[in-house]
Amino acid sequence: MDFRDIDGPTRREMIGGAAALGAGAALVQPAALFAEAGSLADIRKAAEAGKEASIKRIRDWIALPSIAAEDRNMPEGAAYFAQLARDAGFSNVEVVPTDGHPGVFGTLDVGAPRTLGLYFMYDVKQYDPAEWSSPPLEGRLGEREGLGTVMLGRGSANHKGPEATFLAALHAIRAAGRKLPVNLVLICEGEEEIGSPHIHQLVTKPNVLAAFRKCDGVFMPTCLQDLEGGATIELGAKGIIELELVASGEKWGRGPKKDIHSSLKAIVDSPAWRLVQALQTLVTPDGNKPAIDGWFENVRLLTENEKKMIREGIKHTNEARMKENLGVPHWVDDLSLEDAMVRLMQDPTVNIEGLVAGYTGPGGKTILPGRAVAKLDFRLVPNQTRAEAVKKLRAHLDKRGFKDVEMNVSGGYDPTETDPNSRLIRAEIATYKKLGVRPNISVRLAGSWPGGSFTQPPVSQPVGRFGLGTGGNAHAPDEYLLIDSTNPKVAGIVDATMGYAEFLYTFASIK
Amino acid sequence: MDFRDIDGPTRREMIGGAAALGAGAALVQPAALFAEAGSLADIRKAAEAGKEASIKRIRDWIALPSIAAEDRNMPEGAAYFAQLARDAGFSNVEVVPTDGHPGVFGTLDVGAPRTLGLYFMYDVKQYDPAEWSSPPLEGRLGEREGLGTVMLGRGSANHKGPEATFLAALHAIRAAGRKLPVNLVLICEGEEEIGSPHIHQLVTKPNVLAAFRKCDGVFMPTCLQDLEGGATIELGAKGIIELELVASGEKWGRGPKKDIHSSLKAIVDSPAWRLVQALQTLVTPDGNKPAIDGWFENVRLLTENEKKMIREGIKHTNEARMKENLGVPHWVDDLSLEDAMVRLMQDPTVNIEGLVAGYTGPGGKTILPGRAVAKLDFRLVPNQTRAEAVKKLRAHLDKRGFKDVEMNVSGGYDPTETDPNSRLIRAEIATYKKLGVRPNISVRLAGSWPGGSFTQPPVSQPVGRFGLGTGGNAHAPDEYLLIDSTNPKVAGIVDATMGYAEFLYTFASIK
User: Which regions form coiled coils (chains A, B) (predicted)?
Assistant: First the structure.
């Protein structure tokens, strides 16, 4: 749903694990090594030859935005991706209906001993062209200081760009006359940006489930490099619930059913005040800690080992720059960086994404609104579950007399954890090291993604994200993907393609 | 600012004083009497002859919307009204600059013993043509069930229609070859809909102040009849402050300066939560009573006489219909109608007009907003003052550590009280009675209007509103003014014109 930051690589690293900001250049090998490493010279040649086709593949896909929240181009987006998968060599590709929008399933069985699972998404976030410096559906190229040539477009980084780059690796391997070193199993959903409400239906479809259970791990292509060339490997992610709390005269049976003149406040109850009163029970008075009954019951605190991992991860972090990038002068409770990063990884959150009630235009309007809405997200940590959290929140409100305050849950999923000793994670680490990229091991992503759908039964696979290259402004205007890098520490699109190829060979051969 | 309701005459009466809803027809003389009453047959003839010109005057004025909140047509609106005033016989008409938008001042001195003050406004409320059934600037005529022919247009009821109708009375008196029975002093402001922030500058300009101090009262033309033919006379109005409370990372020095990724809530303070926590201190837990330190210190409770007036006023009120019209099943605290009406007149309020923070579109967006805004209005009762209330609110927030929470006061004014024995009110009552209209004496308007600018020093005049006819949907789509009445109890535009003429003669002659 939102495992990309909204401001590009520097901030993303912080969210991903407080890792690489300000890391010393001495740790990183020159980017020229991207080209030397491995024994895949024939594939590299094919990847270079296929570069223009690869750029076109991303650009053409960007031109068809599928937006689940707007029910826009959903069947079209599924059909389009199904064809992309077939073109890359997948067989038995099928569009899989759900109670929501369809997904796409396919396999690429080369008879290899090992099988790797792939999680893709074909949907993108909403956008407002007026806020963009470049038309969001045209995938134009531009220059970005300190990075190089980037492609601007909705989905370029999140996630069409990295996904299409992975497909480019399959094209290059085939063009080099090679057989894939692993079998692939692919699921692509169209509801990632609305919280993956039907991914469970996709992964538990019998033929899909059977295919995924044969895997040795499931990964999502992404572009995780920071500007110093490191790349984060997350050993899990927080879960999330997104919902609206709605107070209304309609449901309450008090207050007005619609907006009325504000002078009537003297004798009419106010749904907006009711919402405020319900909200303030959810957190401590400083707004920083969940205060929902029983919320911490199943929260697993970080182990000493995990805290040590965090301390390692922030060794090279420039805290001042991080704060400046975020526009945040102080962490909560004036925590030190180390304590803040432990808090970031360890603590569940209750966040107000938005408030909407009554008159929202310029100036004022003397009305007593009949309805007030708070948009909230709740980040969950192991061993909380989405179902538990929804139930506890409802009980908390009910107990305080807010039975009428509606909870419209729009999406979410459980937290995810993956064993650092799983073959998937070891292959990720080994590939990064081979390519001269410093792996930053992160306890977990403080954001969320639907990886839990794979780690939990019945799929029960390790999951991870992997990818060279970088991009930014996901969910924001001027989203971009790095195409040609001028930063020797960060991969452009051909090196990112080769990163996936290397990963497949490493995954196939690692013990 | 909002002394008209948003739903037409039935609701207005409730706001104005819980008066006439469901009043028995037996109390009311037939509307034919509008034509008989008085000895102004020559003026009526002129008013009838001038009817089309009168309609055109309103329509042409509606075509030039002056909207202070949007800084739209403000100098143009002042100049336009100045010409309307000159056309109606005012001399020395001047556009008076302020630190905000200009007003218009003029006098009409006929050497009469008595002088009447007039308060006009030339601005109108914002509108969205898409919500209207008729173009809001075209002043088209249409039929309204139970009323007759109405003119639809922004400002038709609030307040261009009644004001232009008063000017029509001056035209008719002149056309009949008569001299006015009183001198007139006129001020017209352009910022009524944003809370009259500069009216004090207008009324204290030396020549304006000198002219108003010679008056025997100041009145505003309006159309105050209910569907049973009664008309409300308010002996005052609540005051108001309108403001935004703004919590922001920028001012706070904590939290983010702009929207950031919501996963960071674990380590970054939230201005939205801060706003919620600040808000909830302002009212009792049920949201129904101000809880601001010292708020009730100067509140004058209603006298037994005033409560008796309220009991009189609700004798004919159909409470069930009132609640149904409002969409409100219960008054606060399940009060009886009588107790609710006492509360309506007597109590100050703290109301949330609107809440705006972060993401406000459909679904969710995982951000931690850098800024959160609550739009509030505070109704004030005698003897609270606007200045006192602003100061106490600031002190209340400061004391609780919310010094950074900004208070952007956009408008407001003190409560108003007028002596029921003043010549102005006695003339209003006498005129209504003469015309067969039942006067509903209301303790005060639960809404607000800038009458306090005239009742207080240095002007120190009784103020009141007066006018036959009706209209509705002020501040809302399809605002309308009754032109030709099919309801024998409610005046159309010619009878409303004659109502003003009668009032001027009554005011001139009453002891």
Answer: none
pTM comes to: 0.84
Q: Please indicate, yes or no, whether residues B211 and B79 belong to a single structural domain of this protein.
A: yes
**Interchain contact, B327 vs A256, CB within 8 Å:** yes
Tell me which of A386, A413, A440 is where a domain ends.
Answer: A413
Position A172 in a domain: yes
Which helix (H) or strand (E) is A354 found in, with range? strand A349-358
- Contact residues on chain B for A352, CB-CB shorter than 8 A: 270, 272-273, 276, 357-358, 368-369, 372
Are A358 and A280 contained in the same domain?
yes
- Selected residues 149-178 of chain B with any CB under 8 Å from a CB in chain A: none
CATH code (residue B257): 3.30.70.360
Residue A281 in contact with partner chain B when CB distance is under 8 A? no
8 A C-beta contact, residue A79 and residue A162: no
Q: What is the DSSP letter of A302?
A: P
Torsion angle in degrees (nearest 10) through CA of A319, A323, A325, A328: 170
**Residue B49: inside a domain:** yes
Radius of gyration over alpha carbons of chain A, in Å? 23
What is the C-alpha to C-alpha distance for residues B355 and B271, in angstroms, rounded to an integer?
Answer: 13
Q: Does B354 touch chain A (CB under 8 A)?
A: yes
Interchain contact A335–B (C-beta under 8 A) = yes
Is B364 within 8 Å of A377 when comparing Cβ atoms?
yes
Nearest-Cα residue of chain B relative to residue A253: B329
Cβ-nearest to B352 among A266, A357, A379: A357
Residues on chain A touching B384 (C-beta within 8 angstroms): none
A181 and A261 within one domain: no
Give me the domain span that covers residue A101: 9-20+30-236+415-509
Whether residues A360 and A466 share a domain: the answer is no
Nearest CA to A270 among A288, A283, A286, A252? A252
CB contacts of A277 in chain B (<8 Å) are 280, 285, 287
Q: What is the pLDDT along chain A (511 residues), one digit of tens a residue?
A: 443 333 333 333 333 333 322 222 233 333 445 655 458 999 999 999 999 999 999 999 999 999 998 999 999 999 999 999 999 999 999 999 999 999 999 999 999 999 999 999 999 988 989 989 999 999 999 999 989 999 999 999 999 999 999 999 999 999 999 999 999 999 999 999 888 989 999 999 999 999 999 999 999 999 989 888 789 899 999 999 999 999 999 999 999 998 898 999 999 999 999 999 999 999 999 999 999 999 999 999 999 999 999 998 888 788 998 898 889 999 999 999 999 999 999 999 999 999 999 999 888 888 999 999 999 999 999 999 999 999 999 999 999 999 999 999 988 889 999 999 999 999 999 999 999 998 989 999 998 888 888 998 999 999 999 999 999 888 888 999 999 999 999 999 999 999 999 999 999 999 9
Residue B376 included in any domain: yes
Contact A352 B372 (CB under 8 A): yes
Look up the CATH number of the domain holding residue A491.
3.40.630.10
Instruction: Give yes or no: residues A85 and A144 share one domain.
Output: yes
Render A2-44 in DSSP notation, one character per residue. Answer: --S-SS-HHHHHHHHHS--TT--GGGS--THHHHHSSS-HHHH
Q: Using a CB-CB distance cutoff of 8 angstroms, which residues of chain B are in contact with residue A343?
A: 266-267
- Look at residues B241, B478, B507, B472 and name the one whose alpha carbon lies nearest to residue B378: B241
ipTM computed for the complex:
0.85
Same domain, A329 and A183: no
For chain B, the domain total comes to 2
Residues B135 and B204 in one domain: yes
- CA closest to B373 among chain A residues: A355
Q: What is the CA radius of gyration of chain B?
A: 23
Taking only residues 400 to 429 of chain B, the set having a beta carbon closer than 8 angstroms to any beta carbon of chain A reads 410-411
Say yes or no: B470 and B363 in one domain.
Answer: no
